[in-house]
Amino acid sequence: MATSLSQRPQLRYLADQIEELKKKGTHFRLRVLEDAQAPVCHYDGRQVINLASNNYLGLCNHPKLKEAAEKATRELGVGPGAVRTIAGTMKIHMELEEKIARFKNVEACVVFQSGFTANAGTVSAILGKEDFIISDELNHASIIDGARLSRAKIKVFRHKDLAHAEELLREVQNEPGHKLLITDGVFSMDGDIGPVDKLADLAEKYGAIMMVDDAHASGVLGRNGRGTVDHFHCHGRVDIQVGTLSKAIGAIGGYVCGSKDLIDFLYHRARPFLFSTSHPPSVTATCMAAFDLLESEPERIDRLWQNTRYFKTELGRLGFDIGGVTTPASETPITPIIVGEGRRAMDFSRALFEAGVMATGIAFPTVPEGKARIRTIMTSEHTREQLDQALEILEKTAKGMRILG
Fold this sequence. Notes:
Elements: H1 12-24, E1 40-43, E2 46-50, H2 63-76, H3 84-88, H4 91-104, E3 108-112, H5 115-126, E4 132-136, H6 141-150, E5 153-157, H7 162-172, E6 179-184, H8 196-206, E7 209-213, H9 228-231, E8 240-244, E9 254-258, H10 260-269, H11 271-274, H12 281-296, H13 299-318, E10 334-340, H14 342-355, E11 357-358, E12 360-362, E13 372-377, H15 384-400
Parallel strand pairs: 2-11, 4-5, 4-6, 6-7, 7-8
Antiparallel strand pairs: 1-2, 3-9, 8-9, 10-13, 12-13
């Protein structure tokens, strides 16, 4: 019989904190997906219209990706057997990195185990305690953690506030040490786009390293989904580009693109790369097939944006608060419905699920107090009928809860 650990006093404080979350109404449990990730699927035995997935282009279950995974498994096995720097670098790993580098129009690329480790591993590797990081206040948690691990001095500028960013760069321009200016390309909670071109101007003016986390822009913005650097025509002006293989690409992993020297340095110093086993051949082959599809099926991105524009317009027509004025306005397939109080947002999410819509409730500390929301995400594969049904459920549920008048 297993020994019960729940009564041991050493971890009682964790249970106490969980109780606090329950009292605030922000505690959640994991919902279990029972079939393939799709616009309509089954969670916890219930069929729902899925507005919560990052599967922007519907590639999670694309036949060509599944075929690539099966072929690689048959020919190369299920795992590489080691970290990249010992015996785990396979030819297919190098082919994927070369493919991504060509796609992003850079010299080189390195693939990490996740987008989180790509960000955290890169920032912590290239900077030290004598250096400075100038970071947007709404940057992703992986950037924040990487900054802390680097031990560099961190200065945070108000969201997308170019004047404030320049003020901070000016403050440290004569200090010894390197300076890193970093922004999300697309901000994951509000769906707005970072001013990459204007920040690149500032980086050049003050001699700072320019870095962009394009996790939610890869496969969404730019030509064939090349991201915000392409969207803003900033090729050659952004020193470090981070992307993920787990959102629009449909699989798992992250990558960093830049100069050959940067990538060679990360091979030697990025701890997640050095101390994690490399991707299995199936995942690597899947990602290669996904990048081929970005080039050969641009209509997927067109459909994504058609659905995005329609859904935003209808949400606004119904009277939902989808950002603007005091909250950044969404400019991408991520569209928040601002509710305000955390418990209310979580209750709204649960009520929507019961009614047939999967839409994630997000509260403090992920977003500021008073800005709790339902985050909705469009994909290219949603049909107009599904969107209309989701909008009807959203409206009816919101009116029942007096979120809408």
